[in-house]
Specification:
This protein has 245 residues and is mostly beta strands. It contains three helices and 13 strands.
Length: 245
């Protein structure tokens, strides 16, 4: 019994030492690596609650690594509308007009399908360290989860938010909560993760809620119902040619 107790005491000491030795860069790098898949297909819905009521939009999405992403909306009102994100650009496709529009400038800050998510939010990938300086500022318990608290400051203006604070769960390296700030420090949005799923040694968020703090009583839930990892998407899948297929 004494040997068992001693073993767990030593394990806790080594675990605590390992955690304390981690830098903010280590934590963010691990978080990004665990949530980046070679390719993925997902189906789900986006539910927005605001002063106009409740709106549900269904979608299918495909992704490749950090940069490439397509979402196709499948609800009747938005059927066939698509968004293509590549490493540097964002495009919308409207099937009725058979038109592709490149979004840039102020248009990126528009709401996506009336939700609390902007098109600009879609440009955020998992290559965090290339875009932000990061600093570990402490630990806090959020919703019963022991979290690293990390502050991030943008390296350039090519990101949606100049500052972010992340609460990253120490056991899973998933951001339990994220606050998005303006350059002056005003809280703009808050994201909370409600569910995650482990897949092949990695992890993906299957339910989260985003609140736009500049709106009154407005929130959007993103829910993933089905996931397929590593589908064969071909070399030309994330292109303008494929956007209007």
């Amino acid at each position: 019994m004494k040997k068992t107790t001693a073993f767990f005491a030593v394990l806790l000491i080594f675990t605590a030492a390992a955690l304390s030795a981690q830098s903010a860069e280590d934590i963010i790098r691990t978080m990004d690596e665990l949530q980046t898949f070679d390719t993925m297909k997902a189906t789900g819905s986006m539910i927005t609650n605001d002063r106009f009521g409740t709106k549900k939009v269904d979608y299918i999405s495909w992704s490749e690594g950090n940069d490439n992403f397509i979402i196709e909306f499948t609800s009747a009102a938005e059927l066939g509308q698509k968004i293509l994100r590549t490493s540097n650009e964002l495009f919308l496709y409207y099937p009725d007009a058979e038109e592709i529009i490149r979004l840039q400038g102020a248009a990126l800050r528009q709401s996506m399908m009336g939700s609390d998510i902007s098109y600009e939010d879609m440009t955020e990938g998992n290559d965090t360290l290339s875009k932000y300086e990061v600093e570990l500022v402490g630990s806090e318990v959020v919703d019963g989860q022991d979290c690293f608290v990390i502050e991030m400051t943008a390296k350039s203006r090519k990101v949606p938010y100049p500052k972010q604070t992340l609460w990253v769960v120490k056991d899973s390296y998933v951001a339990e909560q994220v606050h998005y700030f303006s350059k002056s420090g005003k809280l703009l949005k808050e994201m909370r993760v409600l569910e995650v799923k482990e897949l092949e040694g990695k992890v993906t968020i299957t339910k989260m809620v985003l609140e736009d703090k500049l709106k009154k009583n407005s929130s959007t839930e993103m829910i993933v119902d089905e996931i397929e990892t590593n589908p064969d998407l071909g070399s030309n899948f994330f292109s303008l040619d494929q956007l209007a297929w």
